[in-house]
Amino acid sequence: MARQSISLTEPNDEWLKTQVENQEYSSKSELVNDLIRQARKQQAEIDWLRAKLDRREKSGFTSQTKEQILAEAKALKNG
Hints:
Blueprint: H1 10-21, H2 28-59, H3 66-77
């Protein structure tokens, strides 16, 4: 695993410490890795939705309703 050194603002460092003290995570590293995983997943969802919207926009129409598109996006988000 790659080792990194980062600087944190005081409020962010305090928040990390609190999460570890509350036993939500065993270490700051574990928490930071989890936050990065969540951000990567969120970005993948945004990229998927953007690509789908771009394709639909270029095709000029869709047979799906906005509710169907939203349901599909939510299903992707929920895994």
